[in-house]
Amino acid sequence: MSSHTASSSNVGNGSGDSGVPKRNSKRPKYSKFTQQELPACKPILTPRWVVSTFMLIAIVFIPIGIACLIGSRDVVEVVERYETKCIPVLNRTNKVQFIQSDADKTCTISMTIPKRMKQPIYVYYQLDNFYQNHRRYVKSRSDEQLKSVSKENDTSACKPEDIANGRGAIVPCGLIAWSLFNDTYSFSRQNQSLTVNKKGIAWKSDKQKRFGKNVFPKNFQGGGLVGGATLNESIPLNEQEDLMVWMRTAALPTFRKLYGKIEVDLEEKEVINVTLMNYYNTYSFNGKKKLVLSTTSWIGGRNDFLGIAYLTVGMISFALSMGFTIVYFVKPRRLGDPTFLSWNRGPGSN
Amino acid sequence: MKGLWMGTGSTNPKLASLKNFFRLLAICHTAIPDVDEETGKISYEAESPDEAAFVIAAREIGFEFYKRTQTSVAVREYDPKTGRKVERVYTVLNVLEFNSARKRMSVIVRNEEGKLLLLCKGADSVMFERLAKSSRGFEEETKNHVNDYADSGLRTLILAYRELDEEEYKIFNHKFTEAKNSVNADREALIDDMAEKVERNLILLGATAVEDKLQEGVPACIDKLAQAGIKMWVLTGDKMETAINIGFSCCLLRQGMKQIIINLETPDILSLEKTGNKDAIAKASKDSVLRQITDGKALITGPSGTAETFALIIDGKSLAYALEDDMKHLLLELAMSCASVICCRSSPKQKALVTRLVKSGTKKTTLAIGDGANDVGMLQEADIGVGISGVEGMQAAMASDVAIAQFRYLERLLFVHGHWCYRRLSSMICYFFYKNIAFGFSIWLYEAYTSFSAQSVYNDWFLSFYNVFFTALPVAALGIFEQDVSAASCLKYPLLYQEGMKNLLFGWRRVLHWLGNGFYTAIVVFFFCSTALQHQAFNPDGKTVGMDVLGGTMYTCIVWAVNLQMAMTVCYFTKIQRGLIIYCLCMLYLFFLAFGSLSPSMSTTAYKLFAEALAPAASYWFTVIFVIIAALLPFFAYSAIETRFFPMYHQMIQRLESGRHDDDPEYCDMMRQKLLQPPTSVGFSARLAARANKLRRKNKNQNQPQYS
Description:
Shape of chain A: extended
Oligomer: heterodimer
GO biological process, one term (chain B): phospholipid translocation
Number of helices of chain A: 10
Protein name (chain A): ALA-interacting subunit
Strand content of chain B: 5-15%
Membrane topology (chain B): Multi-pass membrane protein
Structural class of chain A: alpha+beta
Helix content of chain A: 25-40%
Largest sheet of chain A: 5 strands, antiparallel
Strand content of chain A: 15-25%
Enzyme class (chain B): translocase
Number of strands of chain A: 12
Protein name (chain B): Phospholipid-transporting ATPase
């Protein structure tokens, strides 16, 4: 400690602004960036901000919630669970044996339309407890093979459904394709059959790019155990829409997949008879099968969750904005209360 | 002025002594002159600033030391008789160097007349006992002066000399050279011994006093540090009087503070020292120190202890005993209950030991600041060593973690950069936890629905790029630019520093809040997305949700949520920060589009995902908006409540800084009062407060009779 340093620093301060290099200074060049003086806005949560933010959320969310709810309620949905119904009563003790036998599996169920359904009416099958998202299952496919003939033998990911015994590669290979859903439905009302349009149920990108137009099914279901549906070997993969829908693996163990579209309106209280072939074995893992008829609205299918959630959050925001208004402006706070200081709350050391 | 002080002719009776006094200053040192070739001006390179001061003083008076060779010192002396300058060369025969045990240095020179002179300067404690019996003419007077000087915070030295005769010198030189050439372990002791023998029967010349001027702004800085609740210990090599004086001048001590002084200058120990029985001295000293410490503690815990503030002053000798294992905890306890602690006469090792004692004994963070080579040990022992680079050399600066140019910059270093740094690091680390938990836990939750088969709902490349493109840069910018309060406010409200000392921003509470926020975000994102996009059709085309759509939606939600969370966390929104957040969000969509247009075998589930499936679907957009708001709303409400009802220190300051007092002026006034009245026990504001208190008490006492 000495006076020398103190006096020299005064010189330093003086020369800083004058811009004339009076001495050999090591002072770095001034910039707002290095001096941490960048212009910035400093948002702070003032009462006005808080109240108006909550209010804004409420104002935006409540109408959206109502719109979503209306959108969802516009949808007419008919669900029919049939996996038990479609087993003859005698065989219900051992469903797996029945489904694996060669017995006739035709089954007729009827569905009543609760409300007028405008076309297009989408036909879905819904599977429960089917883990299409299991890693072993998801990885068991070959996008290369699906796309081009030359990559036909690119089946390393597909084991054990990669090669048919002695007959070369399976196209399409892998567990996903192997387990293709094969229940079929035919609909009729008043003994007049309803056509189900099975075109246009797959994503366009699948048809155009992911599945090749000159790749034909080959040795499919030829690997010993038969999983699900068989494919017509004369139709290229990019026209096998059922396969394409199935190959988009579902995210959760309960899922629906598009089966087709009915392109006529169905009237209220009409009874639809469904003749279905109950081939698909979900019995060995206690899976449920459901047949769903549904229309759509701008928001998609029927699901009230989004509407209710928007409404709930909107209401909560409204309540919070009211609550904050009260506590901010009615002032129940005792002024000058030092216990609000964070360090006065714990045992302070100094 | 040169020479005028001597008067004319030889009328001044003390002229000879005076001449010798300044001659000694000009000769007895180890400084090296540096002559400026253009101006002829001489500056000096000296070991210590004191030495430089002496040589300069001698030059100003008329004894200009201008050349040093291997064996000689050349001085231009003013001769009052002729009024001219005379160049005289003194042959330096021996230098008996200074060390802390000897506390003095001497040179033996032969002047031009061939006389042998021993010139000696040293501390008063060792010099007075070496004076010749016959030459004690003005000893008493000098002693008084020296005490006065020390009282006013000056560093004093006693100057004395002696003429040697040839025979005596010859014997001394022989033995001294022998001692110097010896290679025994006790070489130092031998040299000291020889020097001891020759440095006696000295003739007193006078005393010097050097002002150890405090650097600019030291008291103000210390006051601020005290307001921030930082406890300061002074570890100095100065002697007790000087140390106490410095304590007063930098406001660590004040009138009305009870000083607990621990030293070994008691008569019984002094008399014991004369006997030379080392064991007895050690035992008595130790007992004495122990007794003084226990007495001090009794004083503090006693009835008057709570009302008073105490200062502990302990000298190096006592410190040596007090730092022994069995006593150091007592010392620490005593010191912790004192407002200021001054350890004087402490050696570099003791400084380091005291630092270690505080560090390990209190488990608090210690910062050592010093400018000299003797502070190096302490700088390295402390958690943070701050070196002051200055006249005392660069050793301290080189051994330190942070080097500054002046003591007062410590204020800015701690309060501005220290606070910002703490803020940035803690926000950054907490945010890192948050964003990775939000992402990782959402993956884990999905895992529970895939019978834990390790299938991720996100595309592999989404997984990889989350921390690379979509969330990395804003948090880096937070770590660089974040400022919760401006530099000016950091300095204005020193109590803000308490946030760091109490670890309010990175304590378990805070970290757990952020972890909880991360888990909450993940839960909201996963469950709300998977419920909103259940098995029903998600677009008017009747398509249902696959793993790709759910993954894409969840990913959008997570990236938006963590980036908006960042925007809510930042207090200092620079254009860069804003730009980076926007960049991350834009990158998300660009990546969706670019990656989705690669061939399906590359992009797998992400192929045309955004362009074909997500973007046209209203349910995607509404789900995303809802989930983001739902994920951020609790944090927003929490912050609103905290800012208003349980404001942390920086939040109060932010509120005041913003200048928006119109909402609630009373509330702002209340905060301002709280912020500006930190309780301190040292520093000049404490001194003012104490004085004011005293006056108030006096007034009260005067008023009391009237009321009763």
